Amino acid sequence: MTRAVGDTTGSLLITGISTLVTNDPQLGEGPLGLITDAAVVISGGSGVSGEEIAWVGPASRAPAADQMYDAGGRAMLPGFVDSHAHLVFAGDRTAEFDARMRGLPYTAGGIRTTVAATRAASDEELSAGVARLVGEALRQGTTVIECKSGYGLTVEDEARLLRIAAQHTDEVTYLGAHVVPAEHDPDAYVELVTGEMLDACAPHARWVDVFCERGAFDGDQARAVLESGIKRGLVPRIHANQLTHGPGVRLAVELGAASADHCTHLTDADVDALASGTTVATLLPGAEFSTRAPYPNARCLLDAGVTVALSTDCNPGSSFTTSMPFCVALAVREMGMTPDEAVWAATLGGARALRRDDVGRIVVGARADLMLLDAPSHVHLAYRPGVPLISAVWQRGRQVVS
Ligand code: NIG
Ligand code: FE
After folding, report:
1. Would you say 21 and 349 are in contact if contact means Cβ atoms under 8 Å apart?
2. What is the pLDDT of residues 138-165, one digit of tens each?
3. What is the pLDDT of residue 48?
4. Cα-to-centroid distance, 389 and ligand 2 (Å)
5. Which positions of the chain have pLDDT values less than 50?
6. Which of 169, 269, 285, 342 would be a feasible disulfide site paired with 330, CB 3.0-4.6 Å?
7. What is the reported pLDDT for 6?
8. In what order do the strands lie in the sheet with 259-262?
9. Which value, to the nearest 10 degrees, does the dihedral of the CA atoms of residues 244, 247, 253, 259 take?
């Protein structure tokens, strides 16, 4: 019997799982903790207990439960954790993309086009846009998604964008330092971002971010932004080394940032710094795909022992995709990752980048965020690129895609 979408009454036993990715090496084979012919029990009742995984193991030892779901020989994974996305915006940048595909380069300046459209949009329009993208992501297996501000760039608009983001996710990031808006000089703008704008935004965010790049903010400005956020209780993360070599990655490690994102242009010193610290390197291959840029060298980071996450960077300028399966396929084909490494990076890697231990794994006590693939193995995510393989998704124990 299959319970209805949204019903959390009673415990649910999912059997017939051909391959289960637990991401716990103690539970199964290899770093992904793979169990073949597996079963999972989601605990019964509503509220917190109904959100959790109650049992994981071989189907032959599965306990009884109130309800049953037959996975029919399909693979089950934790929901994707997309730790880097810009979802609150209006308009699109189709013309810019088209021009780029005719040979123009990507620059930070295009952000201002989206800022103008976003400032002119109503709260309702912006919120509907976020809901659409979050829904799109969910249908592709993403059960946790981070969301940044950064297209408001005034005190009122940045706070507004964060309030809207918080209606859709707990992982909200203050990115007032996305680019210097046309009406400001850079120093005055950094003062605003680290002062009055931070005061208005800090109550609505968990994270502080800055775009450290030529054409955006330099190392000193990025340091000022992150340090002011830290003083207000926000945890730093950073856009670093996307378009050029720069100080961003080393700054991230020095400040103990949760994540350094992009990491496209790295020196040996950057890789050494990441390997010696706790900062996750979050790679965003959708951005390289959509800007026709060279991909980051994931192999080099992994071989150095760096923790790597994969995310979409969903935004209207450099990477307009919500698809984590697409990013997994790109990471394997273009960045030297194995399918196992890419799947780990898109699930538990993302959780590490968000400093979460309740998601990204299928273990007892974790949030019941699960997806079933219309395939017998997680490897198919890379092996069958562009194919809609996500056939069912549970979020907090509720089946939200069927
Ligand atoms: O992560 N690099 C800075 N921000 C986004 C791009 C934003 C835009 O182009 O609108 C990124 O790629
Ligand atoms: Fe980004």
Report:
1. no
2. 999 999 999 999 999 999 999 999 999 9
3. 47
4. 26
5. 1-2, 6, 8, 47-49
6. 285
7. 46
8. 147-148, 172-177, 207-212, 235-240, 259-262, 280-283, 308-310
9. -40
Residues 6+ apart with CB under 8 A from 167: 127, 130
Position in ligand 1 atom list of the atom nearest CA 261: 1
In 3D, which of 19, 22, 15 has the Cα closest to residue 72? Answer: 15
* C-alpha of residue 7 to centroid of ligand 1, in Å: 38
Nearest CA to ligand 1 atom 6: 318
- Could you list the residues known to form a binding site, using ranges: 84, 86, 93, 151, 178, 239, 242, 313, 315, 317-318
What's the chain's length in residues? 402
Instruction: Count CA within 13 A, CB hemisphere, residue 172.
Output: 22
pLDDT attached to residue 4: 54
Concatenating the DSSP letter of every residue in 21-46 gives --S-TTTSBTTTTBEEEEEEEEPPSS
H runs (alpha helix) in 120-185: 123-139, 155-166
Structure confidence by residue, pLDDT tens digits, 247-282: 999 999 999 999 999 999 999 999 999 999 999 999
pTM: 0.96
Query: What is the Cα 10 distance to its own chain's centre?
Result: 31
Ligand 1 atom closest to residue 211's alpha carbon, by position in its atom list: 3
| Centroid of ligand 2 to alpha carbon of 230 (angstroms) | 20
Mutation test residue for ligand 1: of 318, 320, 327, the one with most atoms within 8 Å of CB: 318
CA of 203 to the centre of ligand 1 (A): 24
* CA dihedral of residues 240, 263, 291, 325 (deg, nearest 10): -120
d(CA 62, CA 183): 63
Is the ipTM higher than 0.85? The answer is yes
Protein residue with its CA nearest to atom 3 in ligand 1: 211
Give the DSSP H or E segment for 148. Answer: strand 147-148
